[in-house]
Amino acid sequence: MIAAVRGALGFLTRLPVGHDEAAFDAFRSTPAAFPLAGYAVGLALALPLVVPLPAPTAAFALVVTVALVTGVNHADGLADLGDAAVVHGDPARRREVMSDTTVGVGALLALGVDFAGLALAGLALAGFPLSVAVGLVVASEVGAKLAMALLVCRASASHEGFGSSFLDRADGGDLWLPVFVVLPAGVLAAVTATTLAALVTLLSAVVVALAVQHWADARLGGVSGDVLGAANELARIAALHVGVIAWTLW
Fold this sequence. Notes:
Largest sheet: none
Number of domains: 1
Helix content: over 70%
Number of strands: 0
Distance between the termini: 38 Å
Order of helices and strands: HHHHHHHHHHHHH
Radius of gyration: 17 Å
Strand content: under 5%
């Protein structure tokens, strides 16, 4: 498991760990490594909210921190998914568009919504008590990684490629452990925010994952590496905003 988490951090972040072949191979065989790595990523992303910055600056710093810590892999997947979403055609045509290096309007729109959503969530979190903000950020990031693990365990690959190297090694029977390791994040959010905020934050990430899988099955013929990355980005944004709404209203 330690090697798998190292591999997860090496792939999911720009941290200088887990880049050896043994760690990456362990990661591909261990879906629970996704949410376990999410704890470290979430704490790193919460750093701009710990520093006493003006709210707009903290929001901008959150966007920058996401880019610095996680790199561009997941954003690239979201961009490719955005281009595929606006193309008319069968799954093969959409997959062809996703593999094209040209950036289209769909990609720009998807990334724009992602960055705007992240910045606005950061703006709201900057006005929250520190413990609440950190708890929701960590829960959102762990939830986003659970979304990826859920797809790895439940979905079928759209084609032979990078994504299939994960999906072909797991099935629904492997999902219990990723769900189990998410529980501490829920407890943290419940203690620092509210039980309701914790619950809906994590559940929203799961709902996004299921929605992405449904769309990918219908439009792409299955899930690919790009879909996994896009699910991470979409689940993070959904979880952050649902958590903010829940804590603000209830």
